[in-house]
Design goal:
314 residues, alpha/beta, 10 helices, 8 strands
Length: 314
């Protein structure tokens, strides 16, 4: 799919001071039918309406749901000095807002790229027990920033940037910006030393290092293994994601994650989860049939969730 200029009808909700969420116009009036809410969380450098398939998804989801794109402090270029912990706090504010606006209706989170890290942080990260419960979670393109940076960056630049970031943090300068002549301007956004290590710590202990393929089982059990049963998971891994090396066995990785969720007592919709064949990272430029494969899985998951079909999963 390609970008086409257009007006986007909807409702802009201010869920917190200086923070908003854009709700695409649902198939029926908000006033006439209380809606379940699918909160869409985009990735690094994204903001409102920047993930191309979100518009198609908003027009396709069941009429009992409406899609709402959340704006966070970390959106656009704000991520370089923010954190997934702060994201989770702001997402909790948005969830609380919609739960109050639409009592007794479902709220589901859907993350794209770093939005997937935000969802994991929301569900199992520090302070998770104090956040409002969600009714489901979809992770699309849940890739490792550390492995993506290792895959994309020159090895020497990767080594030097990590060494400098660790030195800065050790000296109490974690909130200062890592010089671009060291990072190679990989993301085009100023990034503080703390966030650089959160993304790419060579010690594999970054705050948001949830989806790396080399994480030990013990680490995965502390994340995937703690996802609550009350929030059934749907995993959508892009078959042609440019952020991961071709030799990565994506199916094996997803199967491992699913097994760990089950072992921990959580639920995964395996009928809808899996590899989205032919899909790139954010589906920009992908053929319509590829976009439809993703959309169909999300629609099926939401219908099953709304009908209570996922409660019987084991």
């Amino acid at each position: 799919m390609t970008f086409k200029p257009r007006a986007n009808p909807g409702v802009l909700h201010q869920y917190a001071e200086r923070l908003v969420a854009f709700e695409h116009t649902p198939t029926k009036s908000i006033e006439s039918q209380p809606q379940n809410t699918l909160i869409f969380i985009a990735g690094l450098s994204d903001g409102l309406l920047t993930v191309p398939y979100a518009r198609v998804l908003a027009e396709s989801i069941p009429p009992s749901f409406s899609l709402c794109e959340i704006l966070l402090s970390s959106s656009y270029s704000g991520w370089g000095t923010s954190s997934v912990t702060k994201d989770a706090t702001e997402i909790a504010q948005c969830v609380t807002y919609f739960k109050k606006l639409r009592p007794n209706r479902k709220v589901v989170l859907m993350g794209h790229s770093t939005g997937c890290q935000d969802i994991m942080e929301y569900l199992v990260g520090r302070g998770a027990e104090g956040r409002p419960q969600i009714d489901g979670a979809i992770i699309q393109a849940p890739v490792s920033d550390r492995e993506a940076m290792e895959f994309i960056m020159d090895p020497e630049i990767s080594r030097r940037s990590a060494e400098l970031a660790k030195k800065m943090v050790a000296e109490g300068k974690g909130e200062e910006i890592v010089p671009s002549n060291v990072t190679g301007e990989i993301f085009g956004t100023p990034c503080c030393a703390r966030r650089w290590l959160s993304l790419a710590s060579p010690d594999h202990d970054g705050d948001e290092d949830y989806y790396s393929s080399d994480l030990p089982l013990e680490r995965l059990r502390s994340t995937f293994g703690r996802i609550p049963k009350s929030s059934p998971l749907c995993i959508l891994y892009s078959g042609k994601d440019q952020s991961v090396p071709q030799e990565l066995n994506k199916q094996e990785l997803v199967r491992k994650w699913i097994g760990i969720v089950h072992d921990g007592g959580g639920l995964v919709d395996e009928d809808c989860s899996g590899i989205v064949e032919g899909a790139s990272h954010n589906l920009m430029g992908d053929p319509e049939e590829v976009v439809n494969r993703l959309v169909e899985r999300v629609v099926k998951y939401l219908r099953r969730l709304d009908n209570g079909d996922l409660r019987t999963l084991k």
